[in-house]
Amino acid sequence: QLQLVESGGGLVQPGGSLRLSCTGSESTLNYYAMGWFRQAPGKEREGVSCISGRDNFTLYADSVKGRFTISRDNAKKMGYLQMNSLKPEDTGVYYCAAIHPAVGNCYNNYEDFGVWGQGTQVTVSS
């Protein structure tokens, strides 16, 4: 069954950058929409960005527009989240998740995403 693994998290100063990676275990990932979610300390999980499997349609939370860029490389079975101009409020555990087109798309709630990575910690602090 499809599995996802995130990497690239770490500690960065405000204004800095990080790139998160999501590696799929199977090429079937290419048919799934791939989303990034995060959960800050004491807060609920929220959607950050998403990219479709069909036409590379992208979606961003208002809080990250202009700063984050989502992409994918289907040949490598990987997805990425480039995070620039990071702010302390970006701190949290970031998760990669995927949803099959038969189930939904990037507009679905996070609970509908059926495949999840283990999460990677991002800390933005001076």
Task: Give your account of this protein's structure.
This protein is mostly beta strands. The protein is 0% helix and 45% strand. It has no helices and 11 strands. Strands 2, 4, 5, 6, 9, 10 and 11 form a 7-stranded mixed β-sheet that branches. A 4-stranded antiparallel β-sheet has the order 1-3-8-7, with no helix packed on it. It is globular. The model has no long low-confidence stretch (mean pLDDT 96).
- Cα(first) to Cα(last) distance is 41 Å
H/I helix tally: 0
What about the largest sheet? 7 strands, mixed
Counting helices, strands and paired strands, the structural category is mainly beta
Rg (CA only)? 13 Å
State the shape.
Answer: globular
Q: Please give the oligomerization state of what you see.
A: single chain
What share of the residues does DSSP label as strand, in percent?
over 45%
Proportion of helical residues: under 10%
> What would the average pLDDT be, to the nearest integer?
96
Q: What would the keywords be for this entry?
A:
126 residues, mainly beta, 0% helix, globular
Question: Which helices and strands, and how do they pair?
Answer:
Blueprint: E1 4-7, E2 10-12, E3 18-24, E4 33-39, E5 46-51, E6 58-60, E7 68-73, E8 78-83, E9 92-99, E10 115-116, E11 120-124
Parallel strand pairs: 2-11
Antiparallel strand pairs: 1-3, 3-8, 4-5, 4-9, 5-6, 7-8, 9-10, 9-11
